[in-house]
Amino acid sequence: MIPFVAEDMTGITYSSNELRGKVVVLNLWGTFCKPCILEMPELNRLKQSYAEKDVVFVSMSPEDKPIIKKFLKKHVFDFIILPGSAHYMKDFGNTVPQTILIDRVGIVREVHIGTMPVKVSSDEKGEKMYEFRSDDLKAKIDQLLSEQQID
Q: Pfam families, from UniProt (predicted)?
């Protein structure tokens, strides 16, 4: 895992060292990224489905707290949000959205650039509807959870 120490939206400090021993789902996003926003409801459901498991859901955005705070008044994102993280995100190429799976030892095991797979359809009014599929991501998280931690 890329070493980091960053403060979340509420002022709690998180570090990569503290997350060792847990599976980490790291999402890179921005308020300016429509695909990031569209997949948020499915990412929130994914987080809820692991509420009782040893998984931590963290997100990094290059934007500052005030911009994200304003965004969160209209959108729900249940991950731990680490604003102002551009200097950490650059190590992953600054592409958003991006979802990174990190094992209990801190090794990056999966980097997915772009949104989760999505089925796009139209409703009766012709409005686009997006149905994101997190099954593959769930299978990979479950695999990481099933692995024994070896230090």
A: Redoxin (PF08534)
Residue 27 counted as domain residue: yes
Digit-coded pLDDT (tens) for 78-92: 999 999 999 999 988
Contact 13, 50 (CB under 8 A): no
In a domain, 151, yes or no: no
What is the domain count for the chain? 1
Per-residue pLDDT reduced to its tens digit, 43-78: 999 999 999 999 999 999 999 999 999 999 999 999
Per the domain annotation, does 82 fall within a domain? yes
- pTM of the entire predicted model: 0.91
Which CATH number is 86's domain given? 3.40.30.10
Residue 120 lies in a domain: yes
Long-range contacts at 61-64 (CB < 8 A, ≥ 24 apart): 61/28, 61/29, 61/30, 61/31, 61/85, 62/30, 62/86, 62/89, 62/94, 63/30, 63/31, 63/32
